[in-house]
């Protein structure tokens, strides 16, 4: 009997996390299942055969991907050809919609079942894309309830599976354990600074974030700073920025361990992204910021249909945490907001209560639920 074949494509570190846990959940039911496509180290560790390095798909913004267009088109052709030849039971695109939906549409038109895991921000901008999504996928898996409602309104088969992070992160406060692990002294407030995982993000955000640290140091002299670096390249980039700005700032750069760093902190300053959900689940007050390239921002600002961009605010459907864009991302704006988050105990308690409510809503055993839908769409009975 031929082993079940599943195609799977992830283009970002967050997709690698989701993909690895999904593979694990499917293999619990079908240990001999084969997985091929594109994945990072976590998916490869779970047994996925990656046809190229995942980083080749990792691009940001609108203008920036144009510079890599020939390579991305070549990778698309490679994957389309491979899956047509390999004939998997289903192909799963994880996030990276501009890359994956084109492949999913092509394969579905040729009789291969397709599923997309992690909704594009179609509810926020370029809502017309939902028509292409309806043609491209047999089923959409969303992480958040408000996304499920959007697809239901547009007649697209959809299941909200919740978020695996909500299953993984305990609702118990992990500050003491994290501070012990990182050798952080008690008695000092700690700001976690997360300027992003991509080089472009760090280039846009590290200077204003460090200027904010200087501002806070003047307002609260005993404060300390922790910065997790996504990899050795990002660590070097961050250390160079610190050296150029200030050698006496009490900042420690840690390789990886972003979740531990946030858990050890009292407040977080971060780039917008999945890490803001982690901060919410860790019950940490935060300020979320982002800066796009000039032309990307001009295009995006005309298309966005939602008043919020950070996950905590999108999930709450109101302004739970401060979020800042472009020229707002400066020490004079961020500093007072962080100081308020640090020193207003009543606000902190109310915020943590809101975060716990959202945590409970998202904890649904996401990967197991996602595996159930994948196997159902693939027409495979549960083992």
TrEMBL record:
GO CC terms in record: membrane
Gene Ontology biological-process annotations: lipid A biosynthetic process
EC number(s) per entry: 2.4.1.182
Protein's pathway: Bacterial outer membrane biogenesis; LPS lipid A biosynthesis
InterPro entries named among the record's database cross-references: Glyco_trans_19
Main enzyme class: transferase
Keywords: Glycosyltransferase, Lipid A biosynthesis, Lipid biosynthesis, Lipid metabolism, Transferase
Reactions the enzyme catalyzes: a lipid X + a UDP-2-N,3-O-bis[(3R)-3-hydroxyacyl]-alpha-D-glucosamine = a lipid A disaccharide + UDP + H(+)
Gene Ontology MF terms in the entry: lipid-A-disaccharide synthase activity; phospholipid binding
NCBIfam families: lpxB
Entries under HAMAP family matching the protein: LpxB
Family: Belongs to the LpxB family.
Physiological role: Condensation of UDP-2,3-diacylglucosamine and 2,3-diacylglucosamine-1-phosphate to form lipid A disaccharide, a precursor of lipid A, a phosphorylated glycolipid that anchors the lipopolysaccharide to the outer membrane of the cell.
Protein name (record): Lipid-A-disaccharide synthase
Gene source species: Zhongshania marina
């Amino acid at each position: 009997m031929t082993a079940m074949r599943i195609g799977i494509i992830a283009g970002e570190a967050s997709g690698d996390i989701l993909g690895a846990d999904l593979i694990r959940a499917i293999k619990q039911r079908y240990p001999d299942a084969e997985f091929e496509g594109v994945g990072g180290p976590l998916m490869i560790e779970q047994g996925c055969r990656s046809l190229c390095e995942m980083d080749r798909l990792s691009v940001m913004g609108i203008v920036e991907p144009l510079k890599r267009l020939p390579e991305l088109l070549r990778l698309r052709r490679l994957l389309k050809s491979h899956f047509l030849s390999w004939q998997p039971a289903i192909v799963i695109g994880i996030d990276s919609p501009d890359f994956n939906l084109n492949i999913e549409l092509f394969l579905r038109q040729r009789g291969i079942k397709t599923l997309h895991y992690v909704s594009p921000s179609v509810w926020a901008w370029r809502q017309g894309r939902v028509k292409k999504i309806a043609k491209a996928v047999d089923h959409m898996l969303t992480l958040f309830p408000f996304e499920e409602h959007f697809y239901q309104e547009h007649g697209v088969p959809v299941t909200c599976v919740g978020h695996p992070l909500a299953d993984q992160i305990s609702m118990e406060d992990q500050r003491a354990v994290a501070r012990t692990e990182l050798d952080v002294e008690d008695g000092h407030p700690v700001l976690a600074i997360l300027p992003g995982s991509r080089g472009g993000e760090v280039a846009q955000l590290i200077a204003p974030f460090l200027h904010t640290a200087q501002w806070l140091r003047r307002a609260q002299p005993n404060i300390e700073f922790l910065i997790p670096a996504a990899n050795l390249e990002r660590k070097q980039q961050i250390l160079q920025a610190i050296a150029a700005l200030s050698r006496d700032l009490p900042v420690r750069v840690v390789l990886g361990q972003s979740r531990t760093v946030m858990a050890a902190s009292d407040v977080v300053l971060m780039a917008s992204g999945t890490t803001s959900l982690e901060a919410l689940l860790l019950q940490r007050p935060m300020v979320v910021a982002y800066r796009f390239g000039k032309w990307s921002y001009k295009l995006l600002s005309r298309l966005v249909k939602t008043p919020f961009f950070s996950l905590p605010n999108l999930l709450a459907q109101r302004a739970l945490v401060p979020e800042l864009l472009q020229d707002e991302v400066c020490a004079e704006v961020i500093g007072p907001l962080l100081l308020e988050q640090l020193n207003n105990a009543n606000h902190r308690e109310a915020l943590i209560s809101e975060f716990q409510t959202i945590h409970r809503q998202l904890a649904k055993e996401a990967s197991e639920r996602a595996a159930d839908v994948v196997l159902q769409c693939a027409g495979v009975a549960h083992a």
